[in-house]
């Protein structure tokens, strides 16, 4: 009988040990899962904060771009005659040849009017580059949205010619 009591005692002790290990594992698992959930939540909130900071930067960038575009809209009315006078006087003063001065393409949306002028000049690089600077920075006639320099060979005299093709964009507010 004493032998049976020791086996029963060992079984009870083993059951008690396994039960305590199970409870230890269960409590560790529950605390770990809550900690891991808190960690995931913290990481998710950190990402949301980073996204909001990035959105604030984007908003500031768009506000700056809007301010620049509003600064480019001229207070005085812009006409094709003004552009023609500037192009012709500059080309005469700096020995440039006007190859193309196309009629403006006009787009209207809401209270804004966008005029796109295509200009093509031939001459030396320094005069052509200073012409771009004159249009955009000094006279503020608009924004040069595209400029392309091409080196072409003249078939008549077999000399190379530098040609500037540019597009000038002017945005104006319509009075309604």
Structure report:
It comes from Saprospira grandis (strain Lewin). This is General secretion pathway protein M. The chain is an alpha+beta fold and 176 residues long. It has two domains: 7-72; 80-173, 2-Layer Sandwich (Alpha-Beta Plaits), CATH 3.30.70.60. Helices cover 56% and strands 26% of the residues. It contains three helices and five strands; from the N terminus they run ααβββαββ. The protein has helices at residues 2-72, 80-93, 125-138, and strands spanning 97-101, 105-109, 112-122, 143-153, 160-173. Strands 1, 2, 3, 4 and 5 form a five-stranded antiparallel beta sheet that branches. Strand 2 (105-109) and strand 3 form a beta hairpin. The relative contact order is 0.11. The model has no long low-confidence stretch (mean pLDDT 84).
Question: Can you tell me the overall shape?
Answer: rod-shaped
Strand fraction equals: 25-35%
Encode the helix/strand succession as letters. HHEEEHEE
Q: How far apart are the first and last residues' alpha carbons, in Å? A: 110 Å
Structural class: alpha+beta
Number of helices: 3
The CATH superfamily of the largest domain is known as Ribosomal protein S6/Translation elongation factor EF1B
Supply the CATH class of the largest domain. Alpha Beta
CATH topology of the largest domain: Alpha-Beta Plaits
Classify the helix fraction into a percent range: 55-70%
Q: What's the β-strand tally?
A: 5
Count of discrete structural domains = 2
Calculate the mean pLDDT score and round it: 84
- Named CATH architecture of the largest domain: 2-Layer Sandwich
């Amino acid at each position: 009988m004493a032998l049976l009591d020791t086996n029963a005692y060992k079984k009870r002790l083993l059951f008690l040990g396994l039960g305590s290990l199970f409870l230890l594992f269960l409590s560790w698992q529950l605390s770990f899962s809550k900690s891991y959930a808190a960690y995931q939540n913290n990481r998710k909130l950190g990402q949301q904060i980073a996204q909001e900071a990035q959105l604030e930067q984007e908003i500031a960038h768009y506000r700056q771009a809007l301010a620049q575009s509003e600064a480019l809209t001229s207070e005085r009315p812009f006409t094709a005659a003004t552009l023609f006078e500037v192009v012709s006087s500059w080309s005469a003063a700096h020995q440039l040849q006007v190859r193309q001065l196309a009629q403006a393409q006009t787009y209207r949306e809401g209270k804004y009017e966008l005029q796109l002028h295509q200009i093509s000049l031939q001459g030396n690089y320094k005069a052509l580059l200073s012409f771009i600077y004159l249009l955009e920075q000094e006279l503020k006639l608009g924004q040069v949205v595209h400029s392309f320099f091409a080196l072409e060979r003249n078939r008549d005299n077999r000399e190379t010619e530098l040609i500037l093709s540019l597009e000038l964009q002017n945005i104006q507010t319509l009075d309604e």
